[in-house]
Amino acid sequence: MMHSSPANYCFELSLTARQIGLLEELRAGGDLHLFVSLHALTSESDVTYSCSDSLIFTVPQSNWIKQLNDSKFTDVLLVEVPIGSLTPAHLVTFLQKARNQIATADYRGAIATCRAAMELLAEGEQKEDQQAVSGFKENPRGMSSENRLRLIRHAARHYTHLANHADSESLKASYTLRDAVLLLTLATAFSAHQLDA
Q: What domain of life is recorded for the organism (predicted)?
């Protein structure tokens, strides 16, 4: 069944933060190219008609970025790490435990748990970590990128020291949601980096 008169239809697509994140990966900073496949069924006098078509639609980079800003998507930085792939398995347990501790406002506990995760990542590498610290003191410009990463991890673990002990000095330290989220972000990032290595 064909009609000569044109008709306009507006299609809306709701995207989750994860879906937008995946689109951003594919877009890789350029224009957004969409492949749209359209299928329609109509009926008249008990006869069904079907038709299909496809089109490629390009959203210019500037337009897409404006849409992201207007939707407030860019107000939140979402970094996803597939923790199910992390090894050893109890590393995932530490990260999930820390997340749950944050949800119950146990910020000190979350930071201590993040420290345990980072210690697990550094297992067997204490000598190399100390060499990285020494290298920073002696020749910071001459450090390799690997040793710079070790130094960051060492500093993060040092930051968690007070949360991991129950002596009188340590108990004076107070921790906030921001502190706990910072350490969970670092612990997760270090875990993902080791996974990709």
A: Bacteria
Q: What is the pLDDT of residue 113?
A: 92
Work out how many domains the chain is built from and give that number. Answer: 2
> Within this chain, do residues 158 and 112 fall inside the same structural domain, yes or no?
yes
> Do the domain assignments include residue 7?
no
Confidence (pTM): 0.58
Structure token digits, residue 158: 């040092």
On whether both 71 and 124 belong to a single domain, the answer is no
Q: Answer yes or no: are the C-beta atoms of 180 and 109 closer than 8 Å.
A: no
Shared domain check, 142 and 100: yes
The predicted-structure confidence for 80-116, as pLDDT tens digits, reads as follows 666 666 666 778 888 889 989 988 888 889 999 998 9
Question: Which domain does 93 fall in, by range?
Answer: 83-196
- What pLDDT does residue 75 have? 72
Residue 1's pLDDT band, with cuts at 50, 70 and 90, is very low
The H or E element spanning position 139 is none
Q: How far is CA 195 from CA 66, 83, 189, in A?
A: 34, 10, 10
Which of residues 55, 75, 95 is at a domain's end? 75
Q: Tell me how far apart the 2 most distant CA atoms of the chain are, in Å.
A: 87
In a domain, 127, yes or no: yes
Q: For all residues of the chain together, what is the average pLDDT?
A: 80
SS3 45: coil
Structure tokens at 64: 């897409």
